[in-house]
Design a protein that fits this description.
Chain lengths: 363, 406
C-alpha cells in the first residue's frame, strides 16, 4: 500500500499551490466574489494553461490522461483558497459527460472547455440534494433526430453563465437517466441566476421542451462520473477544513482573555483537539477512498462513507471555528465564516451526511 | 497511490481463514465469543497464543529477525480482518505489544535473549505497573519508590489498575528513584522477574462488570536486582514514552474488531422487533445510527492503514493521541449500540454463564449475554492508557508547536 502522492502529483500540487498563494489569497478571492463577474476569467484561463482543465480526460479526447488522484492533489488547495471557479461542476461533471460521448458536438464543446474558451454547466440537482440518480425526475422525449427536455433543475453551478449545459434527464417518464447536451440560450430555457452563500454563481433553470442531444445513457458511466466528482468535491472540503483548523489554532494561541491565550483554557484546547481529530479522520478517508477509486475498487458504500464523513466533520469543524473565534468569527470580513459556508454547501450537495449515513446503515 | 489487490493476497486470505477455521479448540472459540473486554479470558487466550506461536504467526508486527512474520502491510490487514471475522480472542497486549517491542528497541542483549523468546512462546506473561492510587492521569507524579542498595533496588509503595497481575509471572513498572528536579526526571523503568518476591502482594479488584480484571500490587521492602533496569536510572520517563509508540499495536488496529461489533448488533437487530413495527434492522433511526458509526469505524480503519503504510499522518507527534481518542470512543459507541439493541435482555447478571466452559445455559442469546458486560467494561477505554482528557491536552499542545498539520 502506498498512499502518498507521486512525485509528479506533488509537483503539480506545488505549482498550483504557488499560483494560488500568489494570486488567490482571501482578499483577492473576495474581490472576485464581490465583482460583477461570476468568477475570474483570468484565473480560469490560468487553470487552462496549467493543464488543469485537460487533466482528467484521455489523450484521445485531447486531455492529459490524469487520474482522480491527480485532481484530488490540487483540489485540496482549491478548498484551502476557497476557489469559486467551477472546476468540479464544469470539468469533473460536465467535461466528463462530454468525454463519455462520441458525437462531434460533444467533442467540439469538450475541446472548448479544455482550452478555457467555454464553461459548461452540469444540470443535475432537483432540489433535495439529489444524492442519487434514482431521484432525477426530469424527462426527455424523442423529437426528430434529437430530444426535447422538460422539467426544472436547481442550483446549477455556472448555470447562468455557461455556454452549454449537460442535463441529466430520464428517457421518458420512468425511463433510465441519461445525459443530454443543451446549448445556452436555446428556445424554452428560463434561467434565474443567483449567488450561493459560498460565493458561487448558480441558477435555477426551467426547461420547456428544449432541444437536446443525447450524450450517453450508460448507467455505469454516470455512476463513475458522479463518484469521481464527489471525491474531488470532498477534497475541496477537506482542504477547507485543514485551513480552518490552522487558522483557529493560530487564533487561539494569540487571542488573549483573562490575561492568557485562550488556547490555554481546557475547554478551548479540547475543542481544538476535536477539530484536529475531525480533520485527521476526514483526510484519511479522502486519501484512502481516492486510492481505492484509482485502483478501480471503490463502491457506492465507500463513496457514501466519504461524502457522509466530509459533510458531518466539515460542519463540525466550521461551527467549532466560529465558536473559537467568537465575535469576529461571525463577520463577513474574516475568512472563517466563508470556509464554514463552503463546507455547508459541500455537505448539502449530492446528499447530506444524514442521507449517506442511512445509506451506509442500510447495508 | 496504490492499493494492492493481487491474487496472491486472496490465496493468503484463504490460508489464514482456513487456519482460523481449523486450529482453535472449542474452548478458544468460546472464549472469543465471550470476550467482553480488550483483555480476553486468560487461560484460553494463552492457549491460543501458543497455537499461533507454533504456526509462526504470534507477532506479525515484530521485526522478522526477532520472530515477526515479515508480512506486507496488506497481509497484516488481511490477517487482522480474518482474525476478527473468526471471533477469536485477541492476544493480550502487555507482552507482545508493549514490553516485547520495547526490549527489541531498548533492552540489553541479556534482556532480549532471556525475555523475547519466552514472550513469543507464551511461557511468560507480563503485567504493566504504571498507575498508582494517587497517580492516574498525572502519571509522572508517581511515588512508588526504588532505593538503590548494592546491586539491588528496594521497592516500597503500590501500583493499581495492573491488568491481569494475578495471572502474570513478570512485571514491568515505573518507579521513583529520585525526587530531584522535574517530576519526570526521577523515574526509572524496571523489569521484575517474579510476581512472588517476598513483600509483594497482588490483590485482584472486582470491576463494575463483575470480573476481577484489574489488580492492586503492594510492595513492602521488595528487593529486586538492578539488572532489570531498562535505560538509565532516572531516565524511565523517556523509556515509557518510547513504549507509547508501540501501544497502538501491530495487529492491524482496532477497526476490524469494531466492525465485528457492528455486525453482531446488525444481526441481533434483524431478529429484534421494533416498537414502531417491522424489525429494528429496518428502522430508519437504527439505520442512520449504525451507518454513522460504521462510517466512523471505516475512517478509523483508513487512518490506521495510512499510518501503518508510513503515510505522513503517522509522523504527526499527536498521532498516537488522536488514534487512542478515536479508537477508545468508538469502542464505547459500538458497545453502547449492542447494549441498546439487546435492551431489557441485557439486564440479567449472568457471570457464571459467561465463564468459558460453564454448564449454565444463558438467558436469551449469546449476544444478550455479552452486550452489557462489554458496555460496562468499555467505560474504561477512555480512562486507561492516558485518559482522553489528557490525550486532548496533548493534541492541543501539539497544535501550538506545529500548527494543525493542514
Amino acid at each position: 500500500m502506498d498512499f502518498n502522492y507521486t512525485e509528479e502529483q506533488q509537483m503539480l500540487r506545488d505549482s498550483v499551490g504557488k499560483y494560488l498563494e500568489k494570486n488567490y489569497d482571501f482578499d483577492a478571492r473576495q474581490k472576485i466574489v464581490r465583482s460583477h463577474a461570476p468568477w475570474s476569467p483570468d484565473v480560469w484561463q490560468q487553470f487552462a494553461e496549467m493543464g488543469l482543465l485537460a487533466l482528467p480526460f484521455s489523450q484521445e479526447r485531447g486531455g492529459l490522461g490524469g487520474s482522480v488522484t491527480d485532481c484530488v492533489a490540487f483540489a485540496e488547495l482549491f478548498g484551502r483558497h476557497l476557489v469559486t471557479e467551477p472546476f468540479t461542476h464544469s470539468v469533473m461533471l460536465a467535461g466528463a459527460a462530454l468525454a463519455a460521448a462520441d458525437g462531434t458536438d460533444a467533442q467540439a464543446w469538450l475541446h472548448k472547455l479544455i482550452a478555457g474558451e467555454a464553461v459548461i454547466a452540469f444540470a443535475y440537482e432537483e432540489g433535495h440534494g439529489t444524492p442519487s440518480l434514482d431521484l432525477v425526475t426530469m424527462t426527455a422525449q424523442k423529437s426528430g433526430e434529437c430530444y426535447a427536455v422538460f422539467g426544472e433543475k436547481r442550483l446549477v453551478v455556472a448555470g447562468g453563465d455557461a455556454q452549454a449545459l449537460v442535463v441529466v434527464a430520464r428517457m421518458g417518464e420512468g425511463g433510465a437517466p441519461a445525459l443530454f447536451l443543451v446549448e445556452a440560450g436555446a428556445e424554452g430555457i428560463q434561467t434565474r441566476a443567483y449567488p450561493t452563500i459560498d460565493g458561487r454563481s448558480t441558477a435555477n433553470i426551467r426547461f420547456d421542451g428544449v432541444r437536446a442531444v443525447l450524450l450517453t445513457g450508460a448507467d455505469q458511466q454516470l455512476d463513475r462520473i458522479l463518484a469521481n466528482a464527489i471525491i474531488v468535491q470532498c477534497a475541496e472540503a477537506v482542504g477547507a477544513m485543514g485551513a480552518l483548523v490552522t487558522l483557529t489554532s493560530e487564533y487561539a494561541m494569540t487571542r488573549k482573555q483573562f490575561g492568557m491565550p485562550i488556547a490555554g483554557f481546557q475547554a478551548v484546547a479540547h475543542r481544538l483537539a476535536d477539530m484536529k481529530i475531525a480533520y485527521g479522520k476526514a483526510r484519511a478517508t479522502l486519501i484512502y477512498t481516492t486510492a481505492l477509486a484509482e485502483s478501480g475498487a471503490s463502491g457506492p458504500r465507500d463513496i457514501a462513507i466519504l461524502k457522509g464523513q466530509t459533510g458531518k466533520l466539515g460542519r463540525a469543524i466550521g461551527e467549532a471555528a466560529i465558536q473559537t473565534h467568537g465575535g469576529v468569527g461571525m463577520t463577513d470580513e474574516l475568512s472563517v465564516s466563508h470556509y464554514h459556508k463552503h463546507l455547508l454547501a459541500c455537505d448539502a450537495m449530492f446528499g447530506d451526511h444524514s442521507y449517506h449515513f442511512r445509506k451506509v446503515g442500510q447495508g | 497511490m496504490n492499493i494492492d489487490f493481487a491474487p496472491e493476497l486472496e490465496a493468503f486470505r484463504r490460508e489464514v481463514a482456513d487456519f482460523f477455521a481449523s486450529a482453535p479448540t472449542p474452548a478458544i472459540r468460546e472464549a472469543g465469543r465471550k470476550t467482553t473486554s480488550v483483555f480476553a479470558p486468560f487461560k484460553e487466550c494463552m492457549e491460543w497464543h501458543r497455537i499461533l506461536y507454533d504456526q509462526g504467526w504470534v507477532a506479525p508486527h515484530w521485526p522478522k529477525d526477532y520472530g515477526g512474520t515479515g508480512w506486507s502491510v496488506e497481509q497484516r490487514f488481511i490477517f487482522a480482518e480474518e482474525y476478527r471475522k473468526a471471533d477469536l480472542p485477541p492476544l493480550l497486549p502487555q507482552s507482545l505489544g508493549m514490553v516485547g517491542p520495547l526490549l527489541i528497541d531498548l533492552g540489553t542483549q541479556a534482556q532480549k535473549d532471556l525475555y523475547l523468546p519466552r514472550i513469543l512462546s507464551g511461557q511468560d506473561f507480563w503485567a504493566q505497573g504504571y498507575s498508582e492510587p494517587n497517580s492516574g492521569s498525572d502519571l509522572a507524579s508517581l511515588s512508588c519508590r526504588a532505593d538503590a542498595d548494592g546491586d539491588d533496588y528496594i521497592i516500597n509503595g503500590s501500583k493499581i489498575w495492573t491488568t491481569y497481575a494475578h495471572h502474570a509471572n513478570r512485571m514491568f513498572m515505573l518507579v521513583r528513584t529520585s525526587n530531584e528536579g522535574k517530576k519526570q526526571q526521577g523515574i526509572t523503568f524496571l523489569l521484575l522477574d517474579r510476581m512472588d518476591y517476598p513483600g509483594m502482594v497482588v490483590r485482584p479488584i472486582v470491576g463494575l462488570d463483575g470480573f476481577p480484571e484489574q489488580c492492586e500490587v503492594f510492595f513492602d521492602n521488595v528487593r529486586v536486582p538492578q539488572s532489570g533496569r531498562v535505560g538509565a536510572e532516572n531516565d524511565g520517563w523517556s523509556v515509557a514514552k518510547h513504549l507509547l509508540k508501540h501501544e497502538r499495536g501491530g495487529s492491524g488496529g482496532a477497526s476490524p474488531a469494531l466492525t465485528r461489533y457492528c455486525e453482531r448488533a446488525r444481526a441481533a437487530a434483524a431478529q429484534t422487533p421494533s416498537p414502531f413495527g417491522g424489525m429494528l434492522a429496518d428502522d430508519p433511526v437504527f439505520q442512520r445510527d449504525v451507518g454513522e458509526l460504521e462510517a466512523d469505524i471505516a475512517s478509523l480503519g483508513h487512518f490506521e492503514k495510512l499510518a501503518i503504510s508510513g503515510h505522513e499522518v503517522a509522523q504527526d507527534p499527536a498521532f498516537p493521541s488522536m488514534n487512542k481518542t478515536i479508537n477508545s470512543e468508538l469502542i464505547q459507541r459500538a458497545s453502547t449500540l449492542m447494549m441498546q439493541v439487546s435492551g431489557v435482555d441485557s439486564l440479567a447478571r449472568q457471570l457464571e454463564a459467561l465463564r468459558v466452559g460453564s454448564n449454565v445455559e444463558p438467558l436469551g442469546s449469546e449476544f444478550d449475554l455479552v452486550a452489557m458486560p462489554l458496555y460496562l467494561n468499555s467505560r474504561a477505554t477512555t480512562i486507561y492508557a492516558g485518559s482522553n482528557e489528557v490525550q486532548r491536552d496533548l493534541i492541543a499542545r501539539s497544535m501550538a508547536s506545529s500548527g494543525a498539520g493542514a
